[in-house]
Amino acid sequence: MSKRVIMAAGNWKMNKTPKEAVEFVNSLKGLVAGSKSEVVVGVPFVCIPGVAEAVKGSNIKVAAQNVHWEASGAYTGEVSCAMLKELGVDYVIIGHSERREYFGETNEMINKKARAILDAGMTPIICCGESLTQREQGVTAEHVRYQIKVALLGISAEEASRLVIAYEPIWAIGTGKTATNEQAEEVCGIIRQLIRELYNDDVAEKIRILYGGSVNAGNAKALFEMPNIDGGLVGGASLKLDAFEQIVKHDA
Predict the structure, then answer these.
(1) How far is residue 103's CA from residue 62's CA, in Å, rounded to a whole number?
(2) Which of 42, 83, 150, 176 has the fewest CB atoms within 10 Å distance of its CB?
(3) Are 164 and 6 within 8 A, CB to CB?
(4) Which of 105, 168, 185, 245 does the annotation list as catalytic?
(5) Is residue 96 flagged as an active site residue?
């Protein structure tokens, strides 16, 4: 088995009010205490203060779902790394396919965000993945490699070894379709090989690569047992206490 610590990261997207979020994590704390997996909740900006306070002293870490790369300025509606850091955020999800598709985020923007997050002492969870058309045309490997190459421009080997990359085939997000364990493992293996090419064996062995795309209580264990999959970025199932608990405790 892998020596990398499995991460169960929930991406709540635009769900739960601040009150609902605090109630959820207060219930979750007892259920996942003592888990061997690293537990992360990716909550909406307005929920971060309450959730960060509620999880203090527990094994649950907090992720933001996005951030702006500038330290401050005339960017109405945006949030900076310093703002997140002060609230106690550990991770920031960047480059999610929904951000790319609905809000026009580019690989270059994701690279700038990754740099800013690292400089602030937090850890980026960098998302990548292909559309159904790209998979059918056989360009998955090229597309994912390109996304990651640009996202990691200017990032050192030491910084890269702490990163988390999340592979999410766009065609499997929220559709109920899941890549087979073999399909998910193949692309996560391609990503690890790219890290080896860009840096070295040591970085490739340390970096954690998650799978996302309709991860649920039923398929998590088999997915997380694949050699190159180090956990999951979980969407809908992370909003349900029993399902997320089972994902976190997949190996119990």
Answers:
(1) 23
(2) 176
(3) no
(4) 168
(5) yes
Q: How far apart, in whole angstroms, are the C-alpha atoms of residue 139 and residue 187?
A: 11
For residue 230, what are its two tokens?
A: 């180090």
Whether residue 206 is contained in a domain is answered as yes
Catalytic residue among 68, 96, 98, 105: 96
Which residue's structure tokens are 């292909």?
Answer: 130
> What is d(CA 18, CA 87) in angstroms, rounded to the nearest whole number?
14
What residue type is assigned to position 87 of the chain? L
| Burial category of 45 from C-beta neighbours within 10 Å (exposed 0-12, middle 13-18, buried 19 and up) | middle
CA 144, 148, 151, 152: dihedral to nearest 10 degrees? -170
139-158 per-position pLDDT tens digit: 999 999 999 999 999 999 99
Tokens, residue 207:
């970096």
CATH of the domain at 135: 3.20.20.70
| pTM greater than the 0.85 cutoff | yes
In a domain, 202, yes or no: yes
147 domain residue, yes or no: yes
Q: Are 184 and 223 in contact (CB under 8 A)?
A: yes
Split into its structural domains, the chain has a count of 1
Q: Which domain holds residue 219?
A: 7-248
Q: Please indicate whether residue 143 is annotated as part of the active site.
A: no
pLDDT in tens, 90-118: 999 999 999 999 999 999 999 999 999 99
